[in-house]
Design goal:
475 residues; alpha/beta; Arc Repressor Mutant, subunit A; Aspartate Aminotransferase, domain 2; 3 domains; 8-stranded mixed beta sheet; 40% helix; 15% strand
Length: 475
């Protein structure tokens, strides 16, 4: 047996490595850190680590390779970690946690061999790799005297660049101080929920609508008041008293309608009378197909509307970059909430986006992907018409990156079985049913949200061809 130098520390290193092997963090064949790296991590001498490794080699946990790092021995299966039941007093969760657990569980991510028609995914080939890399390089090479926490509202250059872009692209007039940079629109929704709603406060929600917005407000203790949507957007006749309304007026998610001028005015009047705040989610306002852009609600009522934007539909959802435009009186509290949440959004990506916006590269990129997605949209609509014919009714195709396909004559109760049949055929298909909060508003026919921005035209055609067979089998 190996004589261990600094036995207490060496034994702790041995126990930690064994725990990682049995817990499945280290798999057979995995290389362990070098003795130098592990010594630095633990703050011990290399001799202590070398002795610990030698002990593990002697016990058969590791294999020694001359001139190379030790690896985990073959035949060592991960052992299940025993679960110890904690007393109820130690397992008490907050009310927030209990509300969170009561929400429907999220769907598992899967891969599909033919096509995944999930909305929100983008084509990796569309990402502007070289311009973004140049922007990142310029940002990373910029020297600063000290590395420190940044402004929780976002970097000054990015907020200035966003101010200019929002004026050019969406007609929004605001001060940089009104902009709060967030880790994607979901963090923006979470901040709105925690700052604007108390438990039992009511919030108006489009029905159907964006589930993660509904969940964010419900987790904060808000009570959803679903309001039906039709071809003119959310219905504004008889809106109930509420503290907040969440809407997608430029492109209603998921049905695709645009809020009419009369209803825009009625919604804003209601907010003033009710003392409510409107959260306007402009999640894909850059994508208009042959129709004029709709000005945001925020341009008509900047003191009543919180505008929520994102680059997840233009650059990548992996970047987690979004922004809020808040009324002036709310700037301070949103900044403080952002500070307590995560100090600030990662600064390097903010600086790169500021460079990309200021150089004009972002808008050139948008023009490019707008053309590409118009081609994908045309291919999707043509394939649906050719392969499915009168079996389907397609809605919401004028804007955005998705359509809704209603399966004529097939009852809504069949959605789940059709989804399973599609997935068995290698196609990711997503039902519209879970987006409805009120069963009374749910149409009688089966419907599906079909995204198309992630695939090339050929993949879209193959996916719809396969989907047509599934729909045909469903009757």
């Amino acid at each position: 047996m190996v004589q261990l130098e600094g036995q207490g520390i060496a034994r702790r290193i041995i126990a930690a490595i064994k725990q990682r092997i049995h817990g499945g963090e280290y798999h057979p064949g995995d290389r362990l850190p070098s003795s130098r790296a592990l010594a630095l991590e633990w703050g011990v001498s290399r001799t202590t680590v070398t002795a610990a490794y030698a002990q593990l080699i002697g016990e058969g946990y590791l294999l020694n390779r001359p001139g190379a790092r030790a690896v985990v021995a073959r035949g060592l299966a991960a052992a299940p970690i025993p679960k110890v039941a904690a007393p109820a007093s130690e397992r008490t969760l907050s009310d927030f946690a209990e509300r969170l657990l009561a929400l429907p569980a999220p769907a598992r991510f899967q891969t599909y061999r033919v096509a995944d028609l999930r909305y929100g995914d983008l084509n990796g080939a569309d990402f502007p790799m070289l311009p973004w890399r140049r922007a990142l390089n310029r940002a990373s090479l910029r020297r600063t005297e000290r590395l420190r926490y940044s402004d929780p509202q976002g970097s000054a250059p990015l907020r200035a660049a966003l101010q200019s872009y929002l004026w050019r692209a969406r007609g929004i007039s605001c001060a940089p101080e009104q902009i709060v940079v967030v880790n994607g629109s979901q963090q923006g929704l979470d901040l709105c929920a925690r700052l604007l709603l108390n438990p039992s406060d009511r919030f108006v929600m489009e029905d159907p609508g964006y589930v993660l917005a509904r969940h964010a407000f419900a987790a904060a203790g808000g009570v959803a008041v679903p309001v039906a949507v039709d071809r003119e957007g959310i219905r504004t006749d008889g809106l109930p008293a509420a503290r907040l309304a969440y809407v997608t007026p430029s492109h209603q998610y998921p049905l695709g309608s645009v809020l009419s001028a009369a209803r825009r005015r009625a919604l804003l009047d209601w907010a003033v009378e009710a003392g409510a705040v409107i959260v306007e989610d402009d999640y894909d306002g850059e994508y208009r197909h042959g129709v004029a852009p709709i000005p945001p609600l925020q341009t008509s009522a900047p003191d009543t509307v919180i505008y929520l934007g994102t680059v997840s539909k233009t650059l990548s959802p992996t970047l987690r970059l979004g922004y809020l435009v808040v009324p002036p009186d709310l700037c301070g509290v949103f900044a403080e909430a952002k500070r307590l949440t995560d100090r600030h959004t990662p600064l390097l990506e903010q600086e790169a986006l500021a460079e990309f916006l200021a150089s004009g590269g972002y808008e050139r990129h948008i023009r490019s992907i707008r053309r590409r997605n118009a081609e994908r949209r045309a291919a999707l609509l043509q394939a649906l018409a050719t392969e499915c014919g009168s079996r389907l009714t397609v809605a919401g195709a004028d804007t955005g990156l998705h359509v809704v396909a209603w399966l004529n004559g097939v009852p809504a109760e069949r959605e789940a079985s059709i989804v399973e049949a599609a997935r068995a055929a290698g196609i990711g298909l997503y039902p519209i049913g879970p987006l409805y909060a009120s069963p009374l508003e749910r149409p009688a026919e089966a419907g599906f949200v079909i995204g198309y921005a992630a695939h090339d035209v050929d993949v879209i055609r193959r996916g719809i061809a396969g989907l047509a067979e599934v729909f045909a089998a469903a009757g």
